[in-house]
Amino acid sequence: MPSLPPPPAALEIFGDALPLASRYTSFLAGPGVERGLIGPREVSRLWDRHVLNCAVLTELIPDSAEVVDVGSGAGLPGIVLAIMRTDLSVTLLEPLLRRTVFLQECVDLLELPNVTVRRARAEEVVGEYAADVVTARAVAPLSRLVGWALPLLRADGELLALKGERAAAEIEDAQPVLDKFGVRVAEVLHVGRGKVDPPTTVVRAVAGKIPQPPKGRSGPRRGARRRGGAHGRKR
């Protein structure tokens, strides 16, 4: 795997977890690029634009939280959060087989006991999770993402979506959906000031109620997680 020296900010952000973060970043730059999960042009900016950008999201996540990372892809931000915060219980939710295989390899390589890989779409697992936090990065516009993420949260749980300069406009566009799901707060936050430049832009949406799962499925329960999500399912 290629070696990508971490920038000075990485030590400040990751601390003792930096060697593990470096190993993950090298895995992204090697197999991640070879398998098409990371674009070749992104290799030189993996640390600044991707890994550190995700790492500062931990500023918003409470202690010992259950986190579901929707559309996890190459593990951004889910794996980064799990590396930084061993107190978190992280589920990487991803529908594509080749991506879940990659994610499971990352988890095995890094020996992350606090991570579960699950091959599924968010709408397929409604009623199986009552997470404290749902995260998402480059998955979908907020107007669609809310409908996928909110049913996976407990009451007062939070959706933390990493967004770009249109974050405020996305909230405005998604207002009817936010109202439909009883979202109490929807706001734009900037995290990592003084650590990453520019700071990471996050849309935070706080669930005001527990959305009801479809008939025939049990209600949300905390800690309902399944091991080995990258294996045992047909294409």
UniProtKB/TrEMBL annotation:
> In what ranges is there compositional bias, type Basic residues?
218-235
* Binding-site positions, S-adenosyl-L-methionine: G71, L76, A122, E123, R137
**Keywords per UniProt:** Cytoplasm, Methyltransferase, rRNA processing, S-adenosyl-L-methionine, Transferase
GO terms, molecular function: rRNA (guanine-N7-)-methyltransferase activity
Which portions of the sequence form the region Disordered?
208-235
UniProt cross-references to InterPro entries, sorted A to Z: rRNA_ssu_MeTfrase_G, SAM-dependent_MTases_sf
Predominant localisation class: cytoplasm
Q: Which Gene3D superfamilies match?
A: Vaccinia Virus protein VP39 (3.40.50.150)
Q: Which domain of life is it from?
A: Bacteria
The listed locations are: Cytoplasm
In terms of Pfam families, this protein maps to:
GidB (PF02527)
Entry GO terms, CC:
cytosol
EC number(s): the record gives: 2.1.1.-
Family named by the database record:
Belongs to the methyltransferase superfamily. RNA methyltransferase RsmG family.
PANTHER family found in the cross-reference section: S-ADENOSYL-L-METHIONINE-DEPENDENT METHYLTRANSFERASES SUPERFAMILY PROTEIN (PTHR31760)
- What HAMAP family does the entry give? 16SrRNA_methyltr_G
**What does it do?**
Specifically methylates the N7 position of a guanine in 16S rRNA.
Question: NCBIfam families recorded for this chain?
Answer: rsmG_gidB
Know the name of this protein?
Ribosomal RNA small subunit methyltransferase G
Q: Which organism is it from?
A: Actinoallomurus bryophytorum
